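User: Design a sequence. Structure:
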């Protein structure tokens, strides 16, 4: 039986121990307005103090509601929230791509979708050393992916797959919600239908499976066999995301 109170304490201890071991000061992370980034921000605030946590809103042709929910989270937990609008940067990049050929919207769809998290991660990693210099201590980037997303490869290589510490790496979506409830994450954010804020679809619509079922697969619980098969297909299709093959010279 999952004990959200105990698990929250274990994660906070995990973060504090790492910060002490590596002599770190703060954290900077993107705040999307969704539950995962909210829970990670809340964990970081409890572990190292909200004065050492900086959130970034990184709109890129995004919904205004995302920024409003991000502010709700920042105000609730008391950490600083900065805004870097990436819309113009994205458009400038796309104009350069358009010079290479007359591509259709369908042909550029996946590239456009994945460009946004890559621009966002570049922004977060720009701010980490800047904040380190300004505030006199090392700032690192926490990841906000949960175990369900990671299992089916629902992340962008070079985007949200890049981080320095992963507080919710081992939690299913339901477990993230349970920990978030213990932390007091605003319900409007905690129970919001998860989406990437990019494609206009919910995560589950895009994946074609339910997070609850992915969680059951991960916890070896009973799940409809057809759903299990679809989840395993997604997992195997994403195999290239999990490990980078490297050639080594044999001695």
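Assistant: Done.
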């Amino acid at each position: 039986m999952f004990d959200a109170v105990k698990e929250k304490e274990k994660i906070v201890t995990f973060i504090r121990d790492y910060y002490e071991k590596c002599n770190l000061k703060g954290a900077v992370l993107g705040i999307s307005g969704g539950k995962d980034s909210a829970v990670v921000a809340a964990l970081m605030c409890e572990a190292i103090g909200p004065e050492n946590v900086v959130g970034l809103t990184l709109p890129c042709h995004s919904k205004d509601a995302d920024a409003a929910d991000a502010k709700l989270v920042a105000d609730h937990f008391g950490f600083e929230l900065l805004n870097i609008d990436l819309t113009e940067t994205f458009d400038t990049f796309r104009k350069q791509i358009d010079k290479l050929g007359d591509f259709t919207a369908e042909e550029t769809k996946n590239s456009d979708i994945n460009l946004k998290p890559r621009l966002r991660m570049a922004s977060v990693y720009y701010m980490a050393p800047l904040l380190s210099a300004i505030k006199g201590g090392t700032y690192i980037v926490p990841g906000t992916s949960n175990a369900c997303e990671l299992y089916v490869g629902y992340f962008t290589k070079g985007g949200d797959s890049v981080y320095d510490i992963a507080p919710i790496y081992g939690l299913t979506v339901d477990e993230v919600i349970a920990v978030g409830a213990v932390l007091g994450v605003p319900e409007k954010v905690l129970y919001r239908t998860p989406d990437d804020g990019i494609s206009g679809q919910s995560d589950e619509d895009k994946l074609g499976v339910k997070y609850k079922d992915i969680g059951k697969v991960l916890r070896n619980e009973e799940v409809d066999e057809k759903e299990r098969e679809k989840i395993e297909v997604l997992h195997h299709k994403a195999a290239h995301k999990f490990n980078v093959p490297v050639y080594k010279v044999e001695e």
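The longest helix spans residues 105-135. The chain has one domain: 4-241.
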